[in-house]
Amino acid sequence: MTSQLKVSIGQNSDKGIKEINEDSYGVLSPEDALLNSKGIAAIIADGMGSCAYPKEASEYCVKGFFSDYYSSPESWTVKTSGAKVLTALNSWLYGKTSDSDAKGMVSTFSALIFKSTTAHLFHIGDSRIYRFRDGTLEQLTKDHRVWFSKEKNYLSRAMGIDLHLDIDYKTIDINVNDLYIMTTDGIHDYLNDHQLKEILFSTESLDDIAKNIVTRALNNNSHDNVTCQILRVDELPIQEANEVYNELIRLPFPPELESGMILDGYKVIDEISASSRSQLYLVEDTDTNQRMIMKTPSVNFNDDPSYIERFHMEEWAGKRINNPNVMKTYEQKKPRNFMYFLVEYIEGITLSQWIKDHPKPDIKQVTNIINQIITGLRGIHRMEMLHRDLKPDNIIINEDGKVKIIDFGSVKIAGIQEISSPIERLELLGTKNYTAPEYLIGIAGSNKSDLFSLGVIAYEMLTGKLPYGERLNRNIDWRSLNKVKYIPAMKNNPMIPVWLDGALEKAVRCDHRLRYDSFSEFMQDLTHPNNAFMKSNIPLLEKDPVKAWKLISASLLIINLWLIYILFVNIQ
Length: 572
What we know:
CATH architecture of the largest domain: 4-Layer Sandwich
Shape: globular
Number of domains: 3
Oligomer: single chain
Largest sheet: 5 strands, antiparallel
CATH superfamily of the largest domain: PPM-type phosphatase domain
Radius of gyration: 31 Å
CATH topology of the largest domain: Phosphatase 2c, domain 1
Helix content: 25-40%
Mean pLDDT: 91
Low-confidence stretches: none
Strand content: 15-25%
Strand order of the largest sheet: 1-12-11-6-7
Distance between the termini: 109 Å
């Protein structure tokens, strides 16, 4: 039985003995696809009374977070989205705090985001989030408050108090019937855990429970605004595998296509390629005459839910990447009766063909292509995606020298990984010899994994060979990996400078911790001699065997002539 994430909400707030209520709070539960990709967000904030505009500060935090969080890319994780949004909000508040006219905007902030079956907590200040489960009350946040005495204390962390923002972040599993209670200090400074639990055991509505908590705090002589927000988890997004599979195959696989056939208003011009996993066709929109590539799934996998889900994710990822060096994936404008998607038609050659056509390329040509690939990869990585199958066959160069990265069949999307699914998600490895070693031994990849593949490509462009030959295969383990040795690029192409070889070697190191930390560092060393690489540790016999043997022969000749001379002198 399919179910969606659902929560019930109870809220109550009172200004108490103060003239105005400086607390702000709210819950946003999307009704569209954002419910799955971004989740349900609940926030509570308490403007600091000693600043000039406490109410404005707390309101800005709540409204700003709701607006910006749900506008962030769906491919981002909750942690990335939340941290980036909070950092931006904090910078704005701090700017106002530093402005002598504004005289300060500071607020606490606590957010609870339910995504799939996980709760994500962001916390700065002394508002609180509790969990009440099976009769046990647990405080999930830590107060950022420093006490001088029983009467005197100050906030050590808050939004707008410092340009540097230190955010507490954690994740916890959520269960049906969990209660999450969010309070400002006007509540929890005047209600202990025992009193709070006593009220939570009530069978009244959540609104009534929240109101009772507020009333009890006021009766206990609270000297502050009092706000309580309660969320109860009613349903979790649990699906059965067969239900997900039925949704995935709501569109049938298309038939085998031939030139001249028309499918959903797209005329097939030619078959571009076919493999065991998919087919690519050059098609033309019969309305606009625009030429595109249609990708269709292979009938070999028409009963494989993992394959079908990944096929859908390939289109999902492609439509969210907008970069001049990445192939475009088009939004479907016509009704679709079969499973397929449309991508940009690029007239050009693969980088594999380019390498064959340029056995002795100019280094500037190579670095220009590498720089364009880097631009494309940055666009992918900004969306918190990893390509994971970067290779010459997945890079196209058009007639103007423009480079495009293609094929998202192996892409990993961080935000999607947070969503639970009954469908087994296979960790598809890339292509032999281009796949980062960490994938081969079961370690999660990172941006450095795509950098490894890029380093292999750069090496191959300059030498026509691979930096480890054929030794990086899927059967390798960490012990064997330690024995794999880098083949100096200079050995395959004596024209490569020592410093350039050093840059290539660092990019493709088997230990990802020893590679470059960024693409910009790699590009810098590809185009500017790095003094650290100027001295080669490669033996001359390995680097230039002919020259080495000439030197050895000359040395032996000199030694023999010297021995003959000594022998002649002794005879005399």
